[in-house]
Amino acid sequence: MDSGSGGLYSDDSITRRVNRENVLLLGGGRALLMQLAHPSVAAGVDEHSDFRRRPLYRLRRTIRLTMAIVFGARETAMAAARAVNHAHAGVRGEGYRAMDPDLLLWVHATLIDSALVSYETFVAPLADDARERFFQESKVLGTLLGIPDDRFPASFGDFRTYMDRMVTDGTVRVGPRALELGRLVTRPRVLRIPGRLFLPLEIITAGLLPPALRDQYRLPWGAARQRAFRLAVKTVPKIVAVTPAPLRVWPLPGHEVGMSSAGARLSS
């Protein structure tokens, strides 16, 4: 899927159309919580990173590298993929290793699923064929990150079945460690910002999560929070629709993306 400018994806691909929306950042907490709900992912993150001290760094780094792969030139995309694989190579512990194809698939799947859920919640619904194209295009990125071809679900329908099965069969289940780390996602310690100021993001994260995982994370979901989430679902797409492109999307179509500029999405 090499674009005319030498990237892995063309400017008119569904992958770039979805991922350039800045509002997808609202789904970042959802993706993190879904990843941590897998006990092996939670163990690897806790034992091989400074997540407890900098809980948002993992999200920032994931977005920076994903944007470099999706929007960068081929050389930039390949360098970003190598950086991810290098970081994962030495991550292993009792009963897990980061390069396990099953763990790689779950982490990749949470990002794909969260991007689609966030886009359709806060931008616009997608047709069935667009969802299918987005999923099929995601295999390009997943393969670069070490997922064997035969591990991917064949179709988007199979992908949805995989996501549901992972939660319902208990493979993905919030344990004590995930519960502890999850609190750092919904109420991160950022400078001296009071945790209560993150309440709107906590409500959005809870609303986007699968209900089973929301319950397992013990996130409050009473009538007031449900009303607040419904209000966000109603108003945010209207705001997004009238937001000028320089504020709404990143990068602007046709702009080159490098490894350093990708980081500006969260640091600017």
Describe the protein in words.
There is one protein chain. The chain is mainly α. It has one domain (14-267). Helix content is 62%, strand content 1%. The chain has a two-stranded antiparallel sheet.
Strand fraction band? under 5%
Q: If helices are DSSP runs of H or I spanning 4 or more residues, what is the number of helices?
A: 15
Low-confidence stretches: 263-268
Instruction: Indicate the multimeric state.
Output: single chain
Radius of gyration: 18 Å
Mean pLDDT: 90
DSSP strand count: 2
Q: Give the biggest beta sheet.
A: 2 strands, antiparallel
As laid out across the biggest beta sheet, the strand order is 1-2
How many domains in all?
Answer: 1
Q: Could you estimate the helical fraction of the residues in percent?
A: 55-70%
- Globally, the shape reads globular
Throw out a few tags for this protein:
1% strand, two-stranded antiparallel sheet, mainly alpha, disordered C terminus, 268 residues, globular
